[in-house]
Amino acid sequence: MTTTVNVATPGGHYPIHIGTGRLDHLHESVPADVTAIALVTNPTVGDLYAKRAIAALQKSGKTVITITLPDGETYKDWQTLNLIFDGLLQNRLDRKCLLVALGGGVIGDMVGFAASAYMRGVRFLQVPTTVLSQVDSSVGGKTAINHPLGKNMIGAFYQPIAVEIDIDVLHTLPEREISAGLAEVIKYGLIIDAAFFDWCEANVAALRALDPDAIRYAIQRSCELKAYVVGQDERESGLRAILNFGHTFGHAIEAGMGYGEWLHGEAVGCGMVQAGALSAATTGLDADSVKRIHDLVQAIGCPVVPPNLGTERWVELMQVDKKTEGGHLRFVLLPKIGQAVVQGAPLNVVRDVLHKTAVPVL
Amino acid sequence: MTTTVNVATPGGHYPIHIGTGRLDHLHESVPADVTAIALVTNPTVGDLYAKRAIAALQKSGKTVITITLPDGETYKDWQTLNLIFDGLLQNRLDRKCLLVALGGGVIGDMVGFAASAYMRGVRFLQVPTTVLSQVDSSVGGKTAINHPLGKNMIGAFYQPIAVEIDIDVLHTLPEREISAGLAEVIKYGLIIDAAFFDWCEANVAALRALDPDAIRYAIQRSCELKAYVVGQDERESGLRAILNFGHTFGHAIEAGMGYGEWLHGEAVGCGMVQAGALSAATTGLDADSVKRIHDLVQAIGCPVVPPNLGTERWVELMQVDKKTEGGHLRFVLLPKIGQAVVQGAPLNVVRDVLHKTAVPVL
């Protein structure tokens, strides 16, 4: 069974196909006027799925070249991005080529940014292979690489021509990756759909076991909710900022620990617990909801105790966040589950929350 | 006297102010909600004009930081681009900052690309200081850096919020730079406005002497003509390609000689002479027009004899051009002066023209 979510933004309209066996149908998303295809992947995903992906893409009748990037968030930098440009230029791919991103969020972000910049813009197809990238980085057109001074600081808003989500491939993921991805799933419930948060609580075991019906629905609903938000606000001037719930804390964890130590979704999961505590102190989130957030993040298998970076280092790291305006710290906060606001928080309250969440007192 | 040309494209509307003393009025182009300003320049231009530019920008009441990049086309690469990101992040400039490009085409291209990619897009103001950048890179939103395998291969279509053209600054340019810039000026006559080409022929001495009325009109008319073409076709899918008249040959000269040996405008000037000869052989351009192109390129002080790269190396270098589709060489050609078409040319005819223009037989 394949479900389709249609994404409409000012920058592009495209379908997300979600189902089993999509990997063998990639040619269905290759436009007729494409001159050549570059499949970009990493050794881990490539060993498992590149052969099938290439066979499917070749059914379009186009030449397919493969570019393999080193695996991991630590390689989400310019040097690695340049390997894509090297491969495209060495093989003389022109501006009517198609890039295909086969991998997780790192591959998707890098291939998307490369597609936006190669010859000032070529088309790309997303084939996300992790829970996180399937629910998150495949919708919204955010592409980027990291800079030593901040995560995702260099990038573009750039939409794929289509997203192909094969839920079968999740079975080869480490359990930790699944937990990290589910953190972003429950985020959608928290910020915009209380009923979906309830559903996640009720189905946490099925989700962790990758039950096909549960996981397809979770991905579909997450994509729908994100598409709704992004459709209202492609350039992140207003509503879209709520998608960063848990991310101000999460980005600080990633930068403070060194990119790659914590998975992005793990950092966001823990960051949501912290943002829940900050919401209690600022927007009046009730204690029961704070506990429900903590418990569900824990139930999906993510860490709930932040690393001890030192309070001042925490604040410094959060100030690099892209939401910061004029040095003023801004957060996505919840008045209640299913409703989010973006606002500043007094520094002493933030410090207090950092202390409180640093040990498991919740 | 200040003239304004308004540019309207799907990606943005902005004014180009052309006149004397504009450098002291930069604050007039700073939006009220800007949080901080980064002036990006090189040591050559910076020594002459940074102080005045900073003083003008500070009249807006904003903090101004300065980022100085090494000077020259050879530095139009990722390493140098990264100096901009380093400076912006070290100074914690947020997504409401304004980048100001004070310099020639290299500075404009790099700052524009940096603005498109920093935090996925911040605003920038163009202050072009060469004839070439005033007539060319300040209109159309093309930004890019070079790759060892090709010029301008990595970039974005990204529009400035305004362009401030101070014609006074041209007086400190080397004569060679003026000649190179005038090559792009006469290009507009050749591809779209025969009367403007006649005017350039009649005013070549005044243009080379930087007569204020002549140079302001030449810049204004070039900007108007380019704005017209770009307004029709922002993403270079059709009409806009005619702006590349002389560029397929020109880019090969620049890549073959090593970036920075020939000035871009010099390579384009010589490339227009070659494209004129190729037009005679393919689109029926008459011999008198071929001679007029040759003579005016020579009269503005640009080289008219291409470097001897070897015919096969020439063809190889031209195949990397972004206009290439499926390995097929495409050129901008003139049926007559003031009218341009984009079409393929048989390889033997191209080889023949390469031989014919390699010695001064015209």
From TrEMBL, chains A, B:
**Record's subcellular location:** Cytoplasm
Would you say which domain of life the source belongs to? Bacteria
Cofactor(s) for this protein? NAD(+); Co(2+); Zn(2+)
List residues binding NAD(+).
71-76, 105-109, 129-130, 142, 151
Q: Which of the seven top EC classes does this enzyme belong to?
A: lyase
Co-factor note (free text): Binds 1 divalent metal cation per subunit. Can use either Co(2+) or Zn(2+).
Task: Give the record's keywords alphabetically.
Answer: Amino-acid biosynthesis, Aromatic amino acid biosynthesis, Cobalt, Cytoplasm, Lyase, Membrane, Metal-binding, NAD, Nucleotide-binding, Transmembrane, Transmembrane helix, Zinc
Q: Which residues cross the membrane?
A: 97-119
Where does this protein hold Zn(2+)?
184, 247, 264
The UniProt entry, under PANTHER family, shows: 3-DEHYDROQUINATE SYNTHASE, 3-DEHYDROQUINATE SYNTHASE, CHLOROPLASTIC
**So what does this one do?**
Catalyzes the conversion of 3-deoxy-D-arabino-heptulosonate 7-phosphate (DAHP) to dehydroquinate (DHQ).
Protein name listed in UniProt: 3-dehydroquinate synthase
Protein's organism: Pusillimonas minor
